[in-house]
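quick q for whoever's on today - can somebody do inverse folding on this one?? i tried earlier but teh output was garbage lol. tokens:
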């Protein structure tokens, strides 16, 4: 039977339009790691092939060698599209809902009890298409005094998803799982031809500032944050990069500020500047 499978597989034509050599994959992996810290393991070869093939067709290049030669030239206009193609953007409204429950049931009361507090700053690092930042804003709505200066910063290395998040326009199926009350309060239906879309209300959008940002490069923010969300991002980095980022996040938090990471991520043996206060929620201690 095994021999039959082997013989049959030889008769199946290679469905790939372009050839991606081991050297091509190694080059892509090294460039992406140096630029973004993302580690592309061998199991990601098919994903890389699929995503870069789209760019090859889009640009009219003849294959991976041709595309990489063009893309990796100094100040190539294609380089941003190359990075955008590789980065993964999986998100949804109120994903990992326990984090938003923590804001509602614990953090808000703590913030409101602070003396002379007049502002609140939260950072969604690796915001993808914006659902996380808007979920934070919805959770804060009607809970934080209106006179407070409340702002949410939402950043991502992928310029395409940053633009989408800023627009706040989503297909109906992205919000269909929310309660009708939340949808009516925070979204407007759009009259678009043949599309069933909604847009986050302007009152909510104006509290969020979407910016492109590479977490491995300099951070231009001057103030400190009360809470930082960086969920399902560091899982793509190696341990030294994770350790560096956790330390930088601690530097950007107020004393006692919170860092929220993803369900599959851990700070174990990577930082002594935080203590666990909930399921993947950490408080800065030094």
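ok took a stab at it. sequence:
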């Amino acid at each position: 039977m095994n021999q039959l499978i082997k013989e049959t597989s030889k008769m199946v034509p290679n469905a790939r339009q372009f050839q991606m050599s081991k050297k091509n994959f190694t080059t892509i992996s090294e460039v992406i790691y140096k630029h973004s810290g993302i580690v592309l393991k061998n199991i990601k070869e098919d994903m890389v092939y699929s995503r870069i093939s789209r760019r090859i067709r889009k640009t009219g290049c003849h294959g991976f060698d041709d595309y990489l030669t063009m893309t990796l030239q100094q100040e190539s206009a294609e380089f941003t599209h190359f990075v955008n193609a590789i980065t993964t953007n999986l998100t949804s409204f109120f994903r990992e809902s326990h984090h938003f429950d923590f804001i509602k049931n614990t953090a808000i009361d703590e913030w409101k009890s602070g003396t002379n507090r007049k502002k609140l700053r939260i950072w969604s690092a690796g915001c993808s298409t914006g659902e996380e930042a808007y979920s934070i804003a919805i959770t804060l709505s009607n809970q934080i005094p209106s006179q407070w200066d409340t702002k949410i910063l939402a950043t991502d290395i992928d310029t395409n998803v940053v633009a989408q998040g800023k627009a706040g326009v989503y297909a109906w199926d992205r919000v269909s799982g929310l309660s009708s009350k939340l949808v009516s309060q925070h979204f407007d239906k759009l009259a678009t031809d043949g599309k069933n879309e909604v847009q986050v209300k302007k009152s909510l959008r104006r509290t969020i500032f979407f910016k492109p940002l590479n977490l491995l490069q300099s951070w231009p923010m001057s103030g400190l944050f009360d809470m930082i969300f960086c969920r399902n991002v560091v899982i793509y980095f190696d341990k030294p990069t994770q350790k560096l980022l956790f330390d930088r996040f601690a530097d950007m938090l107020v004393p006692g500020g919170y860092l929220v990471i993803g369900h599959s991520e851990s700070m174990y043996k990577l930082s002594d500047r935080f203590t666990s206060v909930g399921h993947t929620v950490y408080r800065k201690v030094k």
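fwiw Residues 98-168+202-284 form a domain with the Rossmann fold fold (CATH 3.40.50.150). also The chain has eleven helices and ten strands. so keep that in mind when u check it
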